[in-house]
Inverse folding.
């Protein structure tokens, strides 16, 4: 593994971590599409700032461009306030305009410089190690590593400083407002973090991967835990895994690195979606099928208990009778009987069902429970 | 640019005619079906669908090696459809919300599409050139057979929409009511979603995957401002879409280095802005005028009532009072003179001398009427 490859993976991991932290709150606050809007709209900010400061990793350019992200958020809210269009439509109206202006400006005036439309979407991670930060003549590493490292530290700093405020505002906006935390301030603060992160990540990975890294790892983490701190940690870990595995996928396929990272983020999400212990769809399916048998077993036990010692007992405890009485198909009835017999609730005697003591207790408990 | 020559070329120049026709078809179809997407609060679904279509285009090319628009459009439609299916299942099966599911599918599918595109670009096959025009669209590259394909598929979409007009109306405004009437709402939902996917993929060649969502949202959002009727809205939305499509595509093919997708988006956004400001009744300007007019009317009524209540303290209801008192009663807010002038023109008050005002007979009646109405309201 060359040193450059190591550096690319390091940069990608820092980007993933920096994106995952604000991403968690976007997912929790149902504002995921805002990241899409911001990551597109900052293109305009980057282009305009680039005309003033032609250095894509200058901190001034990043702040200038991040302002366009905040501008997007305010425009969306302004449009919402007119109540002429619905909220989702106003997001869908605002960012294409800003993005279009950005693309046209690039195509017309900046087509021969570092910025080009493909770099915007794809990013140029493969070239990131070539842009070195040189201080007093010493090469101390790739520039974008320092840029993204700083943004990661800013994100960590703000989130840990205002952790409980953001937490309350996220989970109980009403309470937060009642306690005197301005919801607007928290909203715009968070959106500023998203904008700064998106601008910083933009150069390395392009606008689409910003969205992938902000949404996919937190969405997966959301299925794995109920604890906010753990969710942030898991998101960061999943983001870093997507970056590194995406890098190797790209090397293997000789394809675009940012795209491969987004793909791996998606693959990780699908794995979590399927196999998450409590909320994965396999766990859900198993729980549902388990509940189905459990419920049917209870029904059967209660049914038998009801008729125990009555004159109908002979007839009611026939397996064949269940079809008529409980509207069970015969095959299903046999499987329920099998399940109940396995659990020791009843004994099968020539197609007649007899509750065991345990089954009787079980039925009584079930009735009391309800 | 000479407008006359442009119009001449529009009808007789092959490229320009093809471009204009293709963009018109795109605008009509996306405008009409976008109306439903916007009404059903699915504006951003269009964004996700169009991004999700990218891997479909790449896979269709990888499998067939063909760049015929029918093949690519089908690939795009299938991928867009699968993306939508993913979004729906994520929302239905987990606690992840709609917006996160959208962002997830949008970015992951698009990223995967980019991976495939870069792989295709490195293939030793000269035929691959030009697939990346699907990112931002390239109207000038439209061929006559592309336009024919687009027109046929677009007509199918529009005719289906008209056949199921009342069902889709029910679905958009009151799906529960539709279900109680016995309509298969789930099937209709799937059909409408399919039509929207179709509308999106038709425009990909011209506008590109990144900005196609705007062609779904913007014409409909503009048309919504002008009317409250679904039929009118769908019609206007198609017109706006077609207009923006034609103007944008023509600009982009006649001016160098003006990418098509963004140009069309700017055209349609201009229509949106005009609609938001100037549409009658709903528009911001009309709203502003209405607020001002109401404020003025309320102020005039307040002055009239103030004069009346002052005069009631005397035996003569037409007793004159100083303007200073009226100013005091309207709690220091300006505009007392202006309102008195208006009242004088209406014949409700008369000035006794320079700063003394009195009600006329008609003014007394009017003030009594106003107070009666107010009491009625209380």
């Amino acid at each position: 593994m060359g040193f450059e490859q190591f550096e690319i993976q390091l940069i990608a991991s820092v980007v993933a971590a920096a994106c995952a932290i604000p991403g968690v709150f976007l997912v929790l606050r149902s504002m995921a599409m805002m990241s899409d809007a911001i990551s597109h709209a900052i293109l305009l900010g980057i282009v305009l700032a680039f005309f003033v400061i032609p250095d894509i990793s200058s901190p001034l350019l990043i702040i200038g461009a991040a302002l366009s992200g905040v501008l997007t958020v305010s425009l969306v809210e302004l449009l919402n306030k007119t109540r002429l269009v619905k909220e989702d439509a106003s997001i869908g109206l605002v960012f294409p305009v800003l993005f279009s202006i950005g693309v046209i400006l690039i195509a017309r005036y900046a087509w021969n410089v570092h910025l080009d439309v493909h770099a915007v979407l794809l990013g140029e991670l493969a070239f990131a190690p070539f842009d070195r930060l040189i201080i007093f003549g010493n090469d101390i590493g790739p520039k974008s590593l320092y840029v993204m490292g700083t943004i990661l530290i800013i994100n960590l700093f703000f989130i840990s400083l205002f952790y409980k405020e953001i937490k309350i505002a996220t989970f109980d906006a009403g309470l937060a407002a009642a306690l005197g935390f301005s919801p607007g301030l928290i909203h715009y603060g968070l959106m500023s973090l998203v904008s700064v992160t998106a601008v910083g990540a933009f150069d390395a990975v392009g606008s689409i991967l910003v969205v992938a890294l902000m949404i996919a790892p937190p969405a997966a983490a959301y299925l794995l835990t109920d604890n906010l701190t753990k969710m942030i940690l898991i998101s960061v870990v999943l983001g870093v895994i997507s970056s590194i595995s995406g890098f190797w996928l790209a090397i293997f396929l000789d394809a675009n690195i940012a795209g491969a990272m987004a793909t791996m983020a998606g693959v990780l999400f699908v794995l979590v979606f399927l196999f998450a212990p409590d909320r994965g769809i396999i766990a859900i399916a198993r729980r549902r099928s388990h509940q189905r048998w459990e419920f049917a077993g209870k029904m059967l036990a209660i049914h038998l208990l009801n008729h125990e010692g009555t004159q109908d007992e002979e007839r009611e405890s026939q397996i064949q009778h269940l079809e008529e009485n409980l509207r069970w198909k015969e095959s299903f009835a046999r499987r329920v009987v099998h399940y109940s017999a396995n659990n020791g609730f009843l004994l099968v005697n020539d197609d007649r069902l007899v509750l065991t003591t345990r089954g009787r207790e079980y039925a009584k408990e079930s009735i009391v429970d309800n | 640019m000479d407008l006359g020559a442009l119009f001449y070329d529009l009808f007789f120049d092959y490229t320009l005619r093809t471009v204009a026709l293709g963009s018109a078809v795109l605008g009509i179809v996306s405008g009409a079906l976008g109306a439903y997407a916007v009404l059903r609060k699915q504006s951003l679904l269009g964004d996700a669908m169009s991004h999700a279509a990218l891997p479909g285009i790449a896979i269709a090319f990888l499998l067939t090696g063909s760049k015929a628009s029918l093949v690519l459009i089908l690939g795009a439609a299938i991928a867009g459809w699968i993306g939508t299916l993913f979004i729906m299942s994520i929302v239905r099966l987990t606690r992840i919300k709609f917006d996160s599911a959208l962002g997830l599918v949008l970015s992951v599918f698009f990223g995967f599409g980019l991976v495939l595109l870069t792989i295709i670009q490195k293939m030793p096959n000269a035929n691959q050139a030009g697939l990346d025009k699907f990112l931002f669209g390239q109207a000038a590259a439209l061929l006559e057979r592309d336009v024919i394909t687009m027109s046929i598929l677009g007509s199918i979409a529009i005719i289906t929409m008209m056949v199921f007009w009342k069902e889709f109306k029910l679905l958009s405004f009151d799906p529960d009511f539709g279900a109680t009437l016995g309509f298969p709402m789930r099937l209709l939902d799937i059909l409408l979603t399919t039509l929207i996917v179709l509308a999106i993929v038709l425009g990909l060649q011209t506008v590109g995957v990144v900005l196609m969502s705007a062609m779904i949202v913007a014409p409909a959002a503009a048309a919504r401002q002008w009317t409250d009727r679904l039929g009118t809205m769908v019609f206007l939305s198609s017109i706006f879409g077609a207009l923006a499509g034609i103007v944008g595509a023509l600009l982009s093919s006649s001016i160098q280095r003006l990418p098509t997708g963004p140009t069309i988006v700017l055209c349609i956004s201009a229509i949106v802005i005009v609609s938001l400001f100037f549409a009658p009744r709903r528009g911001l300007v009309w709203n502003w005028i209405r607020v001002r007019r109401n404020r003025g009317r309320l102020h005039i009524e307040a002055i009239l009532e103030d004069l009346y209540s002052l005069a009631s303290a005397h035996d003569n209801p037409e007793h004159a009072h100083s303007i200073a008192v009226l100013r005091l009663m309207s709690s220091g807010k300006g505009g007392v003179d202006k309102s008195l002038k208006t009242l004088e023109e209406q014949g409700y008050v008369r000035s006794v001398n320079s700063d003394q005002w009195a009600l006329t007979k008609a003014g007394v009646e009017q003030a009594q009427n106003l107070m009666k109405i107010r009491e009625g309201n209380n």
User: Anything to note?
Assistant: The radius of gyration of chain B is 30 Å. Residues 168 and 174 of chain B are 10 Å apart (CA to CA). Residues 286-377 of chain B form a domain with the Arc Repressor Mutant, subunit A fold (CATH 1.10.10.10).
